[in-house]
Design a protein that fits this description.
CATH class of the largest domain: Alpha Beta
CATH topology of the largest domain: Rossmann fold
CATH architecture of the largest domain: 3-Layer(aba) Sandwich
Strand order of the largest sheet: 3-2-1-4-5-6-7
Structural class: alpha/beta
Radius of gyration: 21 Å
Number of helices: 17
CATH superfamily of the largest domain: Glycogen Phosphorylase B
Number of strands: 13
Helix content: 40-55%
Number of domains: 2
Length: 393
């Protein structure tokens, strides 16, 4: 007698979630004889989410379309919770799969719990141990952990954090991060930069990629970062900066006040995933307050200066490919200048081991799901020193 298929409902709402879930969904669908896959997007971030859906040819079965002008965390939580109530009642999945630390992630896990449906958490166990940094992501991921039944930890450090919080070892799987699966797929595709971005690389010997968007950096912290970059550019005439500017009006005000019109600063609208990865491939180094870029850049051999006081991704710092520099103007100037002026320091960071994945995280996640339902053995753990695959550069 044929066994009933496992019905998995994948829920996500933002661009980073979509990037990391895309390889997992593809792998789930590759097991169509055993797994029935459904996809729900909340569209917590509409435009940037749609870009990734197109890139990875993802077609959701349900679109909750919760994004509204001026919405806050209360609004998003309410809309996602009520939207998923109907979907869960209709689909009755065997497992709800969520990713990361967004409000969609936590709320979907809560909705599944209310419906007595098991939850699988991709990218589980990241911690800063400061509930307000980053906000609300740190608390979202802690709450999601304690609503989840399966925990897909990207690294051994993340697994250890889960164990310290009382999560049973047999429910934790160290898989690597599927962001690296997605990155390898994207980086190997032929791609030509649009003229403005190509010009940045043609006109400058070295290019810095900058991204900023964190709530806790709004105001003077961002001003200091941008002023530091102006000083770096004055001292290094061969260096340019490509800066895809976040749509947050508060970010754009700071950019307009400090960087608009500055020579060798190339301000762009937020980039689609493929153009962004190709800019990062060509960049000399990366400055960011993003979480996901701290994982992606090391896989491309790019040193990362993290514009934050704490990070939930300390592995890259421990392995030497990233450095926490905060937002102090003089510290940022010093750290960027050091990598531009000291080739040995640069090469040491650029050649460090990427601790986040080998391109097979999605395979491990799906095998772990099958093992949870008694259909396969548990996957072997990801270990970067022994197994890491890196994009050839």
């Amino acid at each position: 007698m044929d066994m009933k298929k496992i019905r998995v409902l994948c829920v996500f709402g933002t661009r980073p979630e979509a990037i990391k879930m895309a390889p997992v969904i593809r792998e789930l669908r590759a097991h169509a004889d055993e797994i029935e896959t459904r996809v729900v997007v909340t569209a917590q971030h509409r435009e940037m989410l749609d870009q990734v859906l197109d890139t990875f040819n993802l077609r959701p079965d349900y679109d909750l379309a919760v994004m509204r002008p001026g919405q806050d965390l209360f609004d998003v939580t309410d809309a996602v919770l009520h939207g998923l109530k109907e979907v869960l009642g209709r689909e009755r999945p065997d497992l709800v799969l969520v990713q990361g630390d967004t409000t969609t992630t936590f709320t979907a896990a809560l909705a599944a719990f209310y419906s007595r449906i098991p939850v699988g958490h991709v990218e589980a166990g990241l911690r800063t141990y400061n509930r307000y940094a980053p906000f609300p992501e740190e608390t979202n991921r802690v709450l999601t952990t304690h609503l989840s039944d399966l925990h897909f930890a990207p690294t051994e450090r993340a697994r250890d954090a889960l164990l310290k919080e009382g999560i049973a070892a047999e429910r934790i799987f160290v898989t690597g991060n599927p962001v690296i699966d997605a990155l390898f797929q994207a980086a190997e595709q032929p791609f030509q930069l649009e003229p403005e971005l190509a010009r940045a690389f043609q006109e400058n010997g070295r290019v810095i990629l900058l991204t900023t968007h964190r709530r806790e950096n709004l105001g003077k912290p961002l001003q200091d970062v941008y002023l530091a970059l102006r000083e770096v550019l004055l001292a290094h005439p061969d260096v340019g900066v490509v800066f895809p500017v976040h749509k947050n009006p508060a970010v754009r005000r700071e950019v307009a006040g400090v960087l608009t019109g500055v020579q060798r600063v190339y301000l762009t609208e937020p980039l689609d995933y493929l153009p962004f990865i190709n800019v990062m491939k060509r960049a000399y180094l990366v400055l960011t307050d993003s979480g996901g870029i701290q994982e992606e850049a090391p896989a491309l051999g790019k040193p990362v200066l993290v514009l934050r006081q704490v990070t939930e991704r300390p592995e890259a710092v421990a392995f030497g490919t990233a450095r926490l520099v905060g937002t102090d103007r003089y510290r940022v100037t010093e750290e960027v200048s050091r990598l531009l002026d000291d080739e040995g320091a640069y090469l040491k960071m650029a050649g460090a081991v990427n601790p986040y994945g080998d391109g097979r995280a999605a395979q491990r996640i799906v095998q772990a799901i099958l093992s949870y339902f008694g259909r396969a053995a548990a996957p072997a753990e990801f270990r970067p020193a022994a197994e890491a695959k890196y994009f050839s550069r």
